[in-house]
Recover the amino acids of this structure.
């Protein structure tokens, strides 16, 4: 189920740059580095631990596709991949999302 009060369920304002049946990837609106992507399940899940096993596979496939896209477009020197779960850990959007953050030697990104 998708929720009208969830910004990541409002597909008209989210443009997927990569997608498969169960997940999509889009640019973070406030990137901590050039190429910061978010990967979400298409179905609303409150946080990472609520994903189904097929969704975990779909998300993981997109992480690898995101790496290929970012390697090609930006040639980063490394990556941070991270998930915040619950407010105490910094989750601000309550639709599960995985951060894929390219890193560049000497950058001052703070994931
Ligand atoms: P969190 O702190 O929940 O792990 O990360 C939420 C992320 O979502 C932040 O990096 C923030 O910049 C991004 N974000 C929040 N609202 C929007 C939005 O409407 N569009 C996009 N593209 N990113 C968003
Ligand atoms: Zn949602």
């Amino acid at each position: 189920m998708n929720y009208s009060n969830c910004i990541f369920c409002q597909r008209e304002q989210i443009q997927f740059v990569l997608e498969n049946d169960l997940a999509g990837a889009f640019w973070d609106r406030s990137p901590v580095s050039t190429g910061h992507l978010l990967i979400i399940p298409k179905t609303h899940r409150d946080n990472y631990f609520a994903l189904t096993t097929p969704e975990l596979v779909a998300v993981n496939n997109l992480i690898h596709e995101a790496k290929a896209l970012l390697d090609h477009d930006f040639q980063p020197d490394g990556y941070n991949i991270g998930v915040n779960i619950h407010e105490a850990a910094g989750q601000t959007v309550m639709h599960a999302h995985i951060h894929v953050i390219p890193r560049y030697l000497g950058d001052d990104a703070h994931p």
Observations:
- The chain has a mean pLDDT of 95.
- Helices lie at 53-74.
